[in-house]
Design goal:
By secondary structure, this protein is an all-alpha fold. The protein has three helices and no strands.
Length: about 70
């Protein structure tokens, strides 16, 4: 299922103008950050890590600087 999420997110980023390599790297990073935030939230009993992930996600995915390199 993670591969499908990554592929879907990478496809959306490619449609938004990022190269396939950059899109894939950003998608992989976003999914890793998502999963990590859920693990930490569960371990700490706090939703703060997940909320912080959600707040950072647009910048992680859509930052137009370094469009030729993964975020």
């Amino acid at each position: 299922i993670l591969e499908r999420w990554i592929a879907a997110l990478a496809g959306a980023l490619t449609d938004a103008g990022f190269s396939p390599q950059v899109a894939r790297g950003r998608a992989e990073r976003a999914i890793a950050l998502l999963q990590g935030s859920l693990v930490v939230a569960r371990g700490t009993g706090s939703t703060a890590p997940f909320r912080a992930f959600l707040d950072s996600l647009p910048g992680e995915l859509l930052d137009r600087r370094n469009m030729d390199e993964p975020a």
